[in-house]
Amino acid sequence: MRRPIHALATVLAGALLLSGCGSGVTTPGGASAAGAVTVENCGREVTVSGTPSRAVGLHPAQTELLLRLGLADRLAGQAQTANRPLPGDVAPLAADVPVLGDAEPPSREKLLAARPDFVFSPTTYEFTAEQGFATIEQLTDAGASVYVAAGGCADRRMKGSVEDIFTDLGALGRIFGVQDAATKMINTARADLEAVADAVAGVRPRTVAQLYVEGGTLSAIGAGVEYDIVRRAGGKNVFGPDDEAFADFFVAQISPEEVAAREPEAIVFGVADEEHERTTREYLTRTFPDVPAVRDGRLIAVPSPDLLPGTLGNVNAVRRIATGLYPEALAE
To answer: Which residues form the Fe/B12 periplasmic-binding domain (predicted)?
Structure first.
């Protein structure tokens, strides 16, 4: 195996594919946040005084959560909108929300000019000063509370879980005083995960290689929320956190020979769009003709945005992969 490629995180974040969750849109329930609310986030305490009224979602996944919680009228901005369209059932709710950045997070000046009092981000990358973004400290000084998706915290990227999204929903419920709506969303997602778990409980786990193909580069994923998604789908990852290549980062460049040697029964791969899926299937079929996954036609494509931390799409990905692995068990 070759050294990890940190650039893949950016490639995955730039995927352009719809990631609907079907969780519905709720109206705020419960009392408004009274006084100050303090939540733990990425190893720091975030204190929010009063209910935010000018929130900004720095990625469509975070904007979607705010919309589904019934907070459209409290949004002062959305960003990275070109990286993933909002699901069709919530997109109209964001039609009048200012776009502060399309392919990239907003610049420091543009974000501060929106006068946010709450900023919700998928990772800490969106606060990198060297990229021209406002830092957490600068936003705090300007009166904004900053919350990073639990799965996007630096200390969670290698050991993230699908259930990190429940941490986010719980925190948002408290901060915005919409605990009832947050609890409803959590219960629905948990029920979906439990239904998949029940369906695959009695099957023999199939071995899975989770790959990403971009140009001439082949990468494997062996840690993080992506790893947990495959596990919850009933698959047995052939690459894992104990492998040296994934000691420091969740993804690493890998040789075709190493994949073939593991003889995965299924290959899960992230795709940015239909063309990317087509070219990836062609590559996998051409490169691994004798690997069981190709021989048995078990190549499972997943929209890349569904594999990112901090999105309800993680639940979609669990069911999609489980259905590809065990179609009989997951038949509707």
So the answer is: 54-329
Alpha-carbon gap, residue 22 to 312, rounded angstroms: 9
- Residue 258, CA distances (Å) to 9, 213, 295 in order: 22, 15, 17
Look up the CATH superfamily of 18-193.
Nitrogenase molybdenum iron protein domain (3.40.50.1980)
The first and second tokens of residue 175, run together, are 């901060």
Per-position DSSP letters for 223-259, written without gaps between them: SHHHHHHHHHTTEEESS-TTSGGGSS-SEEE--HHHH
- Category of 42 on φ-ψ map: left (φ > 0), alpha (ψ -120 to 50) or beta: left
Q: Residue 198: is it exposed, middle or buried by C-beta count within 10 angstroms (0-12/13-18/19+)?
A: exposed
Q: Which CATH number fits domain 203-325: 3.40.30.10, 3.40.50.300, 3.40.50.1980, 3.80.30.20?
A: 3.40.50.1980
Is 148 strand, coil or helix? strand
pTM recorded for the entire structure: 0.85
CATH 3.40.50.1980 residue spans of the chain: 18-193, 203-325
Q: What is the pLDDT along the chain (332 residues), one digit of tens a residue?
A: 433 333 344 434 333 232 333 445 544 443 444 579 999 999 999 999 999 999 999 999 999 999 999 999 999 999 999 988 999 999 999 999 999 999 999 999 999 999 999 999 999 999 999 999 999 999 999 999 999 999 999 888 888 999 999 999 999 999 999 999 999 999 999 999 999 999 999 899 999 999 999 988 999 999 999 999 999 999 999 999 999 999 889 999 999 999 999 999 999 999 989 999 999 999 999 999 999 999 999 999 999 989 988 899 999 999 999 999 999 998 75
